[in-house]
Design goal:
272 residues, alpha/beta, 21% strand, binds adenosine monophosphate
């Protein structure tokens, strides 16, 4: 596996490996890798000829500066994880390379970026869209691998790909959960044992919502009841491409967690 930090370096590493007709899969991440990320790498490895991953803690998508500084960073461990998962090229750029002084263009996303995360994290999806557009232009993938865990992010990135005619396929991989049901997230390492225990109300709420939906009851009310005791930012139904999706943002011990389930396809959320 090649590990490269520079834009020219990653383009050169890709062109050395890519022959005409090859399908290039790209997995953008912010590192502190866990089994959720590894599932994206493995799926890309199975489906593509060349697999490129990126690790970049994108400052533009953090609306809370404390979240940015406390975001876990483990570059050496992450490099070993990507190599073991079969990634061919790992791109780990510096922030000043992605955002050099003098840059004058910004993006503003409407549509699927409004509401939910977009409402609670002002500017977040503008930052996501900007970094993805830049990374897509650098890597030039045929297909991008994204997690259902960040369902609204999938909608936003798919809109950017469509609006800018990038011609990149979007592959959405089901949410990977720990044995106790909590969706894997790089932020989980910040949960105290007690907060983690309380956070298990989130997967319980998703299951309750799926059950209520199946029985013709109100999924939001069912989820809210199961979330009793957690500080919730929103519990709602989003209309995503996979149909009505129950979305939750909540805090446990000061750590902000998001999760979701497409009500007609609970298996995509890693729930049966
Ligand atoms: P992040 O490093 O958090 O920006 O995530 C990078 C990619 O991994 C995104 O497409 C996420 O949706 C995906 N991802 C994060 N957590 C999970 C998970 N538990 N299961 C599946 N995909 C995930």
């Amino acid at each position: 596996m090649n590990i490269v930090g520079g834009i020219e370096g990653v383009r050169a590493a890709i062109s050395r490996r890519r022959t005409p007709g090859d399908r290039l899969g790209f997995v953008p991440t912010m590192g502190a890798l866990h089994e959720g990320h590894v599932t994206l790498f493995r799926t890309a490895r199975e489906e593509c000829d060349v697999v490129v991953a990126s690790i970049f803690v994108n400052p533009r998508q953090f609306n809370d500066p404390r979240d940015l500084t406390s975001y876990p960073r483990r570059p050496a461990q992450d490099a070993a994880v990507t190599a073991a998962a079969g990634v061919d090229v790992l791109f780990m750029p510096r922030a000043d390379e992605i955002y050099p002084d003098g840059r004058v263009t910004d993006l503003h996303v409407g549509g699927p970026a409004l509401g939910f995360e977009g409402a609670h994290r002002p500017g977040h999806f503008d930052g996501v869209a900007l970094v993805c557009l830049k990374l897509f232009n650098i890597v030039r993938p045929d297909v991008v691998y994204l997690g259902q865990k960040d369902a609204q992010q999938v909608e936003v990135i798919a809109a950017v790909i469509s609006d800018f005619d990038l011609g990149i396929d979007v592959r959405v991989v089901p949410t990977v959960r720990d044995e106790d049901g909590l969706a894997m997230s790089s932020r989980n390492v910040r949960l105290s044992p007690d907060a983690r225990h309380r956070a298990l109300a989130i997967p319980r709420a998703l299951r309750a919502a799926v059950g209520a939906h199946r029985d013709g009851q109100d999924p939001v009310a069912a989820a809210r009841a199961a979330l009793d005791g957690l500080e919730t930012e929103y519990v709602d139904i989003a209309r995503f491409r996979t149909g009505p999706t129950l979305v939750i943002a909540a805090r446990a011990g000061g750590v902000r967690l998001i999760d979701n389930v497409p009500l007609d396809y609970p298996e995509r959320a890693g729930l049966s």
